[in-house]
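User: Hey, my collaborator sent me this sequence without any context and asked if I could get a structure. I don't really work with proteins. Can you help?
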Amino acid sequence: QVQLVESGGGLVQAGGSLRLSCAASGFTFSDYGMAWYRQAPGKRREWVATVTTTGSTSYADSVKGRFTISKDNAKNTVYLQMHSLKPEDTAVYYCFAPGRLNSWGKGTLVTVSS
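Assistant: No problem. I've predicted the 3D structure and written it out in structure-token form, which is a compact way to encode the shape of the chain:
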């Protein structure tokens, strides 16, 4: 079955960087675009970034220029490189496989201290 396992979260000071990883299994990874979402305490889950099968990327305005999504088909892994982190980036970050897979990982917590 489809499995998505996020890692790389943690505590970082404002202005710092983190790289999140999402290891995928149970499907042909190269056939799907992937996305990252996040959910801050007390808020709704929101879209962060998407990478398509051709490598095209798109970002929420709130992270544009600071975050980079990438996909390594050889490793069945999607990444989210985050720079210039802000306290408002504090959230649980989720990996999502869209389309007919419609599958979520369990998330990894990112905490940005001011």
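In plain terms: The first strand starts at residue 3 and ends at 7. You can pass these tokens on to your collaborator as they are.
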